[in-house]
Protein: Peptidase M23
Amino acid sequence: MKRLLTTMTMTALVVSGFATTSASKVEAATTYKVKVTADGLRVRTGPSTAYKIVGSVNTGQTFNYLGVSGSWTKISYGGASRYVSSTYVKKYSTTTSSKATTGFSRPASGPITQGYGAASGVYGYTFHNGIDIGAPTGTPVYASAAGKVITSRYYGAYGNHVMMTHTVNGIQYTTVYAHLNSRSVSVGQTIAKGSKIGTIGATGNAFGAHLHFEMHRGPYVYSGTSAANSVNPLNYFN
Structure:
């Protein structure tokens, strides 16, 4: 009887282990959108009535939300960033789930035009904290791993850029996507791996269209003369 009970216990553990292993993990992605609440709402190139009208939208139409500027809401309209009066749109969020994939992947297609590591100093730094991927303006850029957007703005040498935080195998990472032509995510969004976050450009201190991509183990720490806490992305792609 003792041997039988032991056999039954081991069988239960094995079955339980198989059940746990076979369960598919999922990751959630939160996207913010706006719904138009009035007919004939004018779409402009900038956040005021002084900017050019490029179209109009009607009640019930929905668009990706890109942020706000004063009393104007920034939306994705016709493949470009445009503005509508915040009075006549309502922001909401949608959450979708997909099968989880672990690790990091290349954020864009194209050749590596500058690698990670020591640099000449010609462009103001003697250590290149990331890799550059050369591609035409407008080439899609994707989230290298599932994570949360912590920065989405135009600022400094990075120009249009996005930063995300990720937890992979219990370790926190921060990724940087710089010199973008356009951004399609906003701060606070949870993004699934492989989701489009923008397009390649040449904004900020960039010479020719390319994506400058960085990975940092932990929070973002930059140094123009050393690796700081950056790591070589090519060692992490799967």
